[in-house]
């Protein structure tokens, strides 16, 4: 039986191989019950981490710790800061999306103050990205939740619209003009940030994407066929593994804090995240420029080269 670990709003460091079959079954039942209480049928949707929150991660820590007889905070990340979570973890993926969007704009000589942005999903990733970009001077013209999108070509004051965490399914209630989530994806904006479900940019709508830049906030929002269509159309797609990596990066910071029994300040978390994101951007940009490939291929080359080097260092490479 597979444990429903990983990919939630934090990572988990349990090695299922070290658990007995009975322990696995017990943990799986407990986790699934608790998760279903929160996200109900959504447990079966393609992005199962949507709708979970730091409390969910606290349950995971407690369920595991009960088996161990002591609290093991480092076993799972994305927890509330008061019980071993990291400050800044909730905002981190949206913050990294905003940092990367800023770097993309700088790279293509696109002034942020003259940049329009549409964001699908208004949760941990979408709302934080939208609000940071809004604060930095971009014009956020569309945001959405499961019910549809708020659209205002003059710009939305993102701070006044509650995020999923603050009030789920509220975006359209605050809107004068509502459009569909599908329409949001094809708006004529500079930057499109899909930050909800996977597989929303497909063969069926890739030709209609009017944005110049797609910065992937969600995991896997673009199918591979759509990716090729966008590449042929010179739409720059900045891949999820770079853009939303703030989440997993601050999860790593959280694990470091937990195993060292330390708590970092928010300023330190955000400074170190900024540094990591800029270093990742530089590494990907170098491959992009040297090889004349897509941003996604450049990110894969950076990642796979590191794995290959690690194999080589161990003498494992044929
Ligand atoms: N949180 C994290 O650490 C990370 C998350 N991701 C990925 O980012 C994406 C979003 O996750 P996250 O922000 O954490 O999730 P949240 O649960 O915090 O927010 C999800 C948002 O998407 C909206 N939504 C739900 N269903 C749909 C739909 N069918 N169409 C449009 N919008 C919808 C929700 O609306 P409503 O309020 O109405 O429910 C909510 O605004 C996922 O793909 C996730 O895998 C990637 C990296 C890290
Ligand atoms: O924190 C993590 O390890 C996972 C974060 C996350 O949800 C993701 O990157 O998709």
TrEMBL record:
Residues 86-315 form the Glutamate/phenylalanine/leucine/valine/L-tryptophan dehydrogenase C-terminal domain. This is NAD(P)-specific glutamate dehydrogenase. It comes from Haloarcula japonica (strain ATCC 49778 / DSM 6131 / JCM 7785 / NBRC 101032 / NCIMB 13157 / TR-1). It comes from the Archaea. InterPro entries: Aminoacid_DH-like_N_sf (IPR046346), Glu/Leu/Phe/Val/Trp_DH (IPR006095), Glu/Leu/Phe/Val/Trp_DH_C (IPR006096), Glu/Leu/Phe/Val/Trp_DH_dimer (IPR006097), Glu/Leu/Phe/Val_DH_AS (IPR033524), NAD(P)-bd_dom_sf (IPR036291), NAD_bind_Glu_DH (IPR033922). PROSITE patterns: GLFV_DEHYDROGENASE (PS00074). PANTHER family: GLUTAMATE DEHYDROGENASE (PTHR11606), GLUTAMATE DEHYDROGENASE 1, MITOCHONDRIAL (PTHR11606:SF13). The keyword Translocase does not apply.
């Amino acid at each position: 039986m597979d444990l429903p670990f990983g990919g939630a709003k934090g990572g988990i460091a349990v090695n299922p191989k070290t658990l007995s079959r009975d322990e696995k079954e017990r943990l799986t039942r407990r986790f699934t019950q608790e998760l279903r209480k929160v996200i109900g049928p959504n447990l079966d949707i393609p992005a199962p981490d949507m709708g979970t929150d730091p409390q969910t991660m606290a349950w995971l820590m407690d369920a595991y710790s009960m088996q161990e007889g002591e609290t093991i905070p480092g076993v799972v990340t994305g927890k509330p800061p008061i019980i071993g979570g990291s400050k800044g973890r909730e905002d981190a993926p949206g913050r990294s999306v905003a940092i990367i969007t800023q770097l993309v704009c700088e790279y293509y000589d696109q002034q942020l103050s003259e940049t329009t942005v549409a964001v699908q999903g208004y949760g941990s990733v979408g709302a934080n990205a939208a609000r940071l970009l809004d604060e930095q001077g971009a014009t956020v013209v569309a945001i959405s939740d499961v019910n549809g999108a708020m659209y205002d070509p003059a710009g939305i004051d993102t701070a006044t619209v509650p995020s999923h965490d603050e009030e789920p399914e509220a975006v359209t209630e605050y809107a004068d003009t509502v459009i569909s989530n599908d329409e949001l994806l094809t708006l004529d904006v500079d930057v499109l940030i899909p930050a909800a479900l996977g597989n929303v940019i497909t063969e069926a709508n890739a030709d209609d994407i009017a944005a110049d830049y797609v910065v992937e906030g969600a995991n896997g929002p673009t199918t591979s066929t759509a990716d090729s269509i966008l590449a042929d159309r010179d739409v720059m797609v900045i891949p999820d593994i770079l853009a939303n990596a703030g989440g997993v990066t601050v999860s790593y910071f959280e694990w470091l804090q937990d195993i060292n029994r330390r708590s970092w300040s928010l300023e330190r978390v955000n400074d170190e995240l900024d540094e990591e994101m800029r270093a990742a951007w530089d590494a990907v940009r170098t491959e992009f420029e040297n090889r004349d490939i897509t941003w996604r291929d450049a990110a894969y080359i950076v990642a796979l080269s590191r794995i290959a080097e690690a194999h080589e260092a161990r003498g494992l490479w044929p």
